[in-house]
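> example.struct
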C-alpha cells in the first residue's frame, strides 16, 4: 500500500505532502532503475524525474539503496497478500501449491514497469533475500502449510523446511522467467506443482 493510500481522512496537509513526495521519489526511482539499472543510476537521475528540489530526496531516503529496498518491500508485501489469498481457496494439496505459485508469477508479470525493474536488477535483488519482507513470506507459507496439514489437506511434514524450499523455488524460477521475452507462467506453475505435489505425496507414503 502506498503512503498516500494508508493515510486516513484526517491527515493534515503536511502529512499528505510528505506522503506525496515519498511516493514521487519511489515512482521515479522505479522508472530509472527499470530503464538504466540500479548500478548505473544515481540519486540525481531519480530526483530529475520529479518536481522536487534536489535536497528533498535526503529528507526521505539516505541513499539509493534504501529506495530500492523500499520498492522491493512494496512488491513483496503485495505479492504475499495475493499469494496467501490464492492459497486460502485451495481444496487439495495440488491446488494449494499451484494457486500460490500462479498468483506470485502473475503478479510479477502483470505490470511492464515492475517486470522490467525486476528483470534489469535481478542480480542486485537476489542479494536481498535476507530482507524481512522475504522472510515474512516464508513464515506465512509455513503457517499456511501447517494449517493445511491440520485439516488433512496434505500429509504431515517439516513445514519450515518445505516453506523455505518452495519460496526458494518461486524466487529462482521467477528470476529465470524474467529472462524470457514473454514469461510462461503456466509452464512454470505446472513444473513446480508437479515437483512439490509429488514430494508431498511421497511423504504421505512414508
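> example.seq
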Amino acid at each position: 500500500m502506498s503512503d498516500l493510500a494508508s493515510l486516513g481522512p484526517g491527515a493534515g496537509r503536511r502529512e499528505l505532502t510528505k506522503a506525496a513526495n515519498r511516493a514521487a521519489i519511489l515512482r521515479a526511482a522505479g522508472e530509472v532503475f527499470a530503464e538504466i539499472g540500479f548500478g548505473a543510476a544515481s540519486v540525481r537521475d531519480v530526483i530529475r524525474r520529479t518536481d522536487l528540489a534536489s535536497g528533498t530526496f535526503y529528507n526521505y531516503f539516505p541513499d539509493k539503496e534504501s529506495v530500492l529496498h523500499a520498492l522491493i518491500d512494496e512488491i513483496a508485501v503485495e505479492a504475499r497478500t495475493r499469494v496467501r489469498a490464492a492459497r486460502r481457496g485451495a481444496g487439495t494439496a495440488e491446488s494449494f501449491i499451484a494457486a500460490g505459485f500462479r498468483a506470485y508469477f502473475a503478479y510479477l508479470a502483470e505490470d511492464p514497469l515492475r517486470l522490467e525493474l525486476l528483470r534489469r536488477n535481478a542480480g542486485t535483488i537476489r542479494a536481498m533475500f535476507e530482507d524481512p519482507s522475504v522472510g515474512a513470506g516464508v513464515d506465512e507459507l509455513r503457517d499456511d502449510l501447517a494449517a493445511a496439514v491440520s485439516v488433512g489437506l496434505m500429509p504431515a511434514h517439516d513445514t519450515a523446511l518445505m516453506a523455505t524450499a518452495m519460496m526458494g523455488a518461486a524466487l529462482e524460477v521467477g528470476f529465470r522467467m524474467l529472462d524470457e521475452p514473454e514469461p510462461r507462467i503456466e509452464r512454470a506453475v505446472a513444473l513446480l506443482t508437479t515437483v512439490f505435489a509429488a514430494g508431498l505425496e511421497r511423504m504421505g507414503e512414508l
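> remarks
The radius of gyration is 19 Å.
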